[in-house]
Amino acid sequence: MLDTVTRWEELGVFEEIYREARQRVVGLTMGLTADELARTVPACPEWTVHQVIAHLSGQSSDLVTGRMEGAPSDEWTARHVAERAGVPVDDLLEQWNVFGDKIGEMPRIPFQLALDAITHEADLRAALGRERLPDAVWQPTLVWIAPRRLTDVTVKTEFGDVGDGPITLEVEGYELWRAFFGRRSRAQMEAWNWSDRSPIEKIPFFPPRETDLVE
């Protein structure tokens, strides 16, 4: 996995993913009403739409300024939200653009930052009732993650097989992609078509949800 990360960093793949996600989220959230900004994001039940944007802005600011103590803990992300509680969303988006441009100038952008950006973009799209994240955005990262995270599994998706392990899993690709980032419950993952459910524990980078999330 580290070899793949390095190669993608050298090719600027993560920078492109992050930059394009930022552009889409800015377009998605500019001009939202107060009610829309106050809407709870089901994938992030402690945050509103405004607070998700505050986190994205604060994360980029911290990375550029080196304010990384405690990252990526819940306390670190909570500070992003708390410090920007009264900041208008247009200002948050402008801050994200400024610091995001500086991140784009770095020799290598952390792959976690790019994946976090598209994950939260998917969260926001679902909360606002917009169309799902384009397949061309998430599919390459799923193809990259799945065989390294699930080394014993052949994942059968609607766009082909991923991996070549002895255990088979038939699942919609987007569902697995969301599960990697803690957006599906254990019950949802168990309901997929497995030949052997033992690899479930290897799926989420973060703890799975306690309740089901249907998007």
TrEMBL record:
UniProt keyword terms in alphabetical order: Isomerase
Coiled coil: none
InterPro entries to which the protein is assigned, alphabetical: DinB/YfiT-like, MDMPI_metal-binding
Domain of life where this protein originates: Bacteria
Protein name per Swiss-Prot or TrEMBL: Maleylpyruvate isomerase N-terminal domain-containing protein
A GO MF term: isomerase activity
Domain Mycothiol-dependent maleylpyruvate isomerase metal-binding stretches: 19-97
